[in-house]
Amino acid sequence: MMDNRRRFNDTPTVEWVPKTALGKLVQKGEITSLEQIYERDMAILEPEILDLLVPNLQDEVLNVKMVQRTTDAGRKGSFMVTVAVGNKDGYVGVGTGKGNEVRPTIDRAIRHAKKNIIHINRGCGSWECNCSTGHSIPFKVRGTDSSAKIELLPAPKGTGVVAGKVAKKVLELAGVKDVWSTTTGNTRTAYNTAFATLAALEKARKMKK
Questions:
Q1: Which residue, 89, 119, 149, sits at the end of a domain?
Q2: Residues 73, 114: one domain?
Q3: pTM over 0.70
Q4: Which of 16, 109, 163, 193 could, after both became Cys, cross-link 81 (CB 3.0–4.6 A)?
Q5: Which domain holds residue 42?
Q6: Are residues 193 and 168 part of one domain?
């Protein structure tokens, strides 16, 4: 018999029992979009909320880093994973996880990324294009995380996502198809670059056109 149960990260899920007021409102159907959550200024503490409100989320592992620390018993290693999630249609999030095994750590990072998901404003802010469609971003924005800084500029149709590997994956999962970018600082750190990109996209959401 075919198993028709919903699956989360390729493993069978159990029935979700909300622990927060927001989770209970979402499960009851009283909140049906992220916009309603923004209006109420409520924090998303349960990733299952996003499973209901934003279906078809895709995830992308941006970086897997081995971290070692010295203990009384010697050196002990663990993993730090940075992940991005998005539906390629305006929703994107970035998260991290730490653990002793890669697969559970990736799952932990995905759950964290879902809690950080945002809805971005897309548009066509390029004077070279001015097509009034949502293929790019509406205006220039900057984002910073630690020493990593990124600047995103609107680009005309057909340009593609001109960005480094990490920033490009975040932008593509957000549904941005054409954009130019410049980065400064310690952009070799995937964690900082990913969160700097997310911060820039969030500014595009908050700023008025």
A1: 119
A2: yes
A3: yes
A4: 109
A5: 16-53
A6: yes
